[in-house]
């Protein structure tokens, strides 16, 4: 997801790393020594190998984006964080990097996400007209949790959501429309009433629950299973949209305007056939509309895309 100016539309960089093959074949941490010592320690703090690999990949993507966008030598890169309470990773160039030169280091904006061994980065270079008055530190310096994004400055947010993460705990996953509705209601503080109804009604894309006299038929059970599967995919799609937006703003799920942030025309990405590779992607969908306090937000662009399921 990206938030851009009307006058200027910066290009958006998106990179993905699938670490599943690495974790399955290699217990080491390749290229770890190329990171700053503090980042190396942060990677090694994770207990599980797959989490260390995701953290490593996340850092490597951030370093690479900074290196290519700002033309900073790799060994001079240092990841900063915006002021509390947001603490978003960002790049604030050290004055030492430009001492004795007239070269201007571009201001950049990026965001990362990782889940189920997939790691993603979205980033953009802030146009000079905006960068002259806005730095990452200044952009998120307001500690007021009700603050809204500075829409005149490009901001990005990205989120990966694994819709089959419940595979290992199938007994706890909803298996009927009724259970799905009860599960969705748990998140009433995150979603608006309209979003909750849309998820529970499957966006009107699948048949209503079977009538009582037909409920025990094989076709009815298949329809129920299909409906629940789609409902869960729709739920996770809404969840990813919320996560990406609040990551763009630097807020947490406790943002007081969270339920006032609504998404409409949402379509859950269809399952993508493939060999479980990060190269297996569905068709991007850009038809989602964003609303805040009942007002359509015209300067927000959202794109959702499905990837192949874990093998």
TrEMBL record:
Keyword Magnesium: no
Family: Belongs to the P-Pant transferase superfamily.
GO MF term set: holo-[acyl-carrier-protein] synthase activity; magnesium ion binding
Organism this protein belongs to: Aspergillus hiratsukae
InterPro entries per the UniProt record, alphabetical: 4-PPantetheinyl_Trfase_dom, 4-PPantetheinyl_Trfase_dom_sf, AASDHPPT_N, P-Pant_transferase_sf
One Pfam family in the UniProt entry: AASDHPPT_N
Domain 4'-phosphopantetheinyl transferase: 155-264
Name of the protein in its database record: holo-[acyl-carrier-protein] synthase
Reactions this protein catalyses: apo-[ACP] + CoA = holo-[ACP] + adenosine 3',5'-bisphosphate + H(+)
Domain 4'-phosphopantetheinyl transferase N-terminal: 31-124
